[in-house]
Amino acid sequence: MLAEVAGGWQLATCPDQAAWVRKFKTVKVTARLSRPALETLAIIAYKQPRHPAEIEAIRGVNIAASCGTSWSAGW
Known about the structure:
Elements: E1 2-5, E2 8-11, H1 18-25, H2 35-47, H3 52-59, H4 64-67, H5 69-74
Antiparallel strand pairs: 1-2
């Protein structure tokens, strides 16, 4: 949900979903992302491209190897 806070806007979890967020907060994640995968996610977060081809143009390499072929094909 989008909430107005202190004259600005904040993206927050809806109160009715708080129980689910608490469950995910306690989950321990042991897997780490590779550097290419982190770079790809940073591009997605910053540029918000609509197609994998846009990410590939920015990075200059094929993203299928860094994100997995199933993720790339299913996007």
